[in-house]
Design brief:
With 211 residues, the chain is an alpha/beta fold. 24% of the residues lie in helices and 29% in strands. A six-stranded mixed β-sheet has the order 1-2-3-4-5-7. It starts with a strand and ends in a 6-residue tail after the last strand.
């Protein structure tokens, strides 16, 4: 198995490949589209997974789905975010959270994410085996109601914005539901030793819960 980290600005997305077949986790924002395509073209893309439907994770999903003729997997609870970010407005905690939210809020509200035509709904425990990957979906609500992660071989966990690593690994600084994101942080910690792949920040092994 190979994990390809695609970094565009402050956004991360990841190609998880087993041989030539690959699954893309998140798609970054439109300014990174060509960079993402250049990496996806090296593989036979099977599926796109969105950890949640914010523009910096999902803005290229519809275009990539058309280009590679693959479905887009997401949790049903996030579908309303294709209509408007304000369906699940974000709050923040701490200085880091206030700064990030302040810099992000205007573009989050002004950017509409195109809804892909080929959507499949996924939930806790769903296997990605039919797409060539030994992995399962993990529900990680709090940042959004439908935030999910991908647990690969019980070794690698892709967490989207449920956690972040702006300065050090921590519970996601931006949230829609504070109680849910706290529970999610504890859930991730309880999974045991994993390499964590964040929507923002470098991968780490484990984290110390902060909230």
């Amino acid at each position: 198995m190979e994990i390809k980290h695609i970094k565009g600005g402050t956004d991360n997305c990841y190609l998880i490949a087993d041989g030539k077949k690959a699954v893309l986790v998140d798609t970054a924002s439109k300014q990174c589209l060509n960079q993402v395509i250049a990496e996806c073209d090296k593989y036979e893309l099977q599926l796109i997974v969105l950890t949640h439907v914010h523009f910096d994770h999902a803005e290229n999903a519809a275009e990539l789905s058309r280009r590679y003729n693959v479905p887009v997997a997401l949790h049903e609870a996030d579908e309303e975010l294709f209509e408007s970010f304000d369906r699940q407005p974000l709050k923040s905690y701490g200085l880091v959270g206030r700064v990030v939210l302040g810099l992000s809020l205007k573009v989050l509200r002004e950017t509409t994410v195109e809804r892909p035509e080929k959507i499949i709904h996924v939930k806790e425990g769903d296997s990605l085996g039919e797409y060539g990957l030994n992995a399962k979906i993990v529900e990680l609500p709090g940042h959004t109601n439908g935030s999910i992660g991908v647990d690969v071989e019980e070794k690698h966990l892709f967490v989207g914005d449920a956690l972040d690593n702006w300065i050090s690994p921590a519970t996601g600084h931006l949230y829609f539901n504070i109680d849910d994101i706290r529970k999610t942080a504890k859930k991730i910690k309880a999974l045991g030793n994993r390499t964590l792949y964040y929507g923002h920040g470098k991968p780490t092994t484990g984290f110390k819960e902060k909230i």
